Amino acid sequence: MATFTVPVLWVLISFFACYAHSVPNAKLPHQSAGCTVDYFNGIIPSGISIERAQYLTTGTFAERGNLGYPAAASGLQPLCVVIVRNETANYRFGMFLPDNWNSKLIVIGSYSFLGGINWLDMGAGTQYGMASLSTDTGHNSGTGDLTWPTTQQLRVNWAYQALEGSIILGKKLIQTYYNNKPITYSYFSGCSTGGRQGLKQIQRDPDMFDGALIGAPAWDTKNLMPWISKIATWNLPESAAGSINDANLFSRLQAEVVKQCDALDGVQDNIVSSLSACREHFDITKIRCDVTTDKTSCWTQAQIDTAQKLYSDYITDSGDFVYKGLDYSSEAGWGTFLLPADPNSSNNVRRNFDAEYERTFMNYGSNWQITSYNDSVVNDARIRDQQSVQASADQYNLGSFRNKGKIIMYGGLADAVVPVQHTDLYYNRTVAAMGNIDDFFRYFHIPGMAHCWGTPDNVKAPWMMGGAGQAAQMPPYNSGHSVPLGYNDSAHDALLALMDWVEKGNAVSQIIASEFNFTDSTLQTIVMYRQRPICPYPQTARWDGQGSQNDASSWKCT
Questions:
Q1: In the structure, how many helices (H) and strands (E) does the chain have?
Q2: Could you please report the per-residue DSSP string of 212-226?
Q3: What single DSSP character describes residue 474?
């Protein structure tokens, strides 16, 4: 059974949450005198209020009642915490302003439809010496909650307005706080919805960032959400012969994919690195109940037919392409949009989350049922997104950003939330619109990585490379940043590689990804397991046939 190496998603780390801590210090740095509500009230424009300005020397910070991001940021160096509210548009943003500031800003993206300020990822940003900023996107909501977008303002805030407004004002406040010292470089880091936010902001204002680290971007909102609904309909009713209701079935399929496709890239290492070869050669009938001798979690032909739909692109009955299908090696994560599936439970994902976008963002109403879904929803979603919310980041010609900024984008080949083929689609369309874009935009596949971070235990692929949210998945967890065990350099950390490219002109030719083993039952101690370069698409890493497969020096991008 495939389980994930990452012990728990940081958004669920409750024992770190819901408290703030600071250590008294009689001797404060000069700018800390400005870390007060009164100071910021004196420099904000009308329509803005300051909810909090708190000076921390060392320790931990979390915001009580933050449903989307309850986890605390720990290991903080002396800094000023500021929470700002836009009273007119009704969104908030937070800032960490470190005493030892290097004149850089990092803007932190959000995840999914979560509402709240992402303090945890902001904390990691300050450990690079940067001021950090994140918005609550205009609401406060937890995992799986898509009931909140009841007004146009709430939807537009999530789509782009809260982030854009927060950055514009945040930059002014930061420079004023530091005695009008200019921000020399502005960066962005986000994955999933965060990746969409970064691309959207570059498309709206190419001067906003100098560099952006974009992970698994959910860029195509208007087509992504109908695709999720379509996935649900392929598995309804739950009693249907083709419905896949057991997580063990996903694990069995994923294990069979690894078994058949691992060696197709020329190396036996439990990692499916060549998706194209797997698509061509994989035989799913090997796990069919009337074929296999191992009847544990075997698949019926009807369930195999459903799996083939999930692997295939979503194309309407009229032939209109909507969204790329899930890819081979992503099966361990297929439960994200399909489980739990108890038809009598309010937690049934297929009948609840998978239908909520239509109910709220599209104004179909709370009584609309997923069983009413048909292909007409696709065109309706596109029209509403284009004419109203404009959440999709579907501009491919990035214009003048090419002349001033750099993008590193990445996607896991085992991603079951934003299929890597759809991330490929954005990159390929950008190339079609702009020609060769290697001078400012490089895209990296990460074999074996799931959505944003993590890898199944039966794969153990190198995945950690300084991406958004990754540091919190390994010790020291909430106080971590970059890559553990001292690999905090531009060779191993994509954010540092991005800075090196922006500030020194050193283009990124590869990034060494890492995977670790835990050495104790408390999951507090790790050792290096293996490292491998990830390569600018369409290059792939090739083993030299001689050195250790777990050593990055034995691989070369070709």
A1: 14, 17
A2: EEEES----HHHHHH
A3: S
DSSP notation for 57-118: SSEEE--TT-SS--PPEEEEPSEEEEEEEETTTTEEEEEEEESS--SEEEEE---TT-BS--
Q: CA-CA distances (angstroms) from residue 233 to 355, 370, 376?
A: 10, 7, 14
Confidence (pLDDT) at 1? 44
Nearby residues of 368 by Cβ (< 8 Å), 6 or more positions away? 355, 358, 359
- What pTM value is reported for the model? 0.95
Nearest to 415 by CA among 363, 455, 362: 455
- Tell me how far apart the alpha carbons of residues 518 and 527 are, in angstroms, rounded to a whole number: 7
Strands (E), 413-501: 441-446
532, 552 in Cβ contact below 8 A? yes
Contact in structure between 425 and 324 (CB atoms under 8 Å):
yes
Q: Give the per-residue pLDDT at 210.
A: 98
Name 444's bridge partners: 410, 536
| Averaged pLDDT in 10-residue chunks for the chain of 558 residues | 41 33 41 87 97 94 97 96 98 98 98 98 97 98 96 98 98 97 98 98 98 98 98 98 98 98 97 98 98 96 98 98 98 98 94 98 97 98 97 98 98 98 98 98 98 98 98 96 97 98 98 97 97 98 97 98
Residue 104, sorted as left (phi over 0), alpha (psi -120 to 50) or beta, turns out to be beta
**Parallel, antiparallel or unpaired: strands 91-98 and 185-191:** unpaired
User: Rounded to the nearest 10 degrees, what angle do helices 376-384 and 221-233 cross at?
Assistant: 150
Nearest to 37, CA basis, from 84, 70, 97 = 84
The answer to whether residues 495 and 187 touch, using CB atoms and an 8 Å cutoff, is yes
| Amino acid present at 505 | G
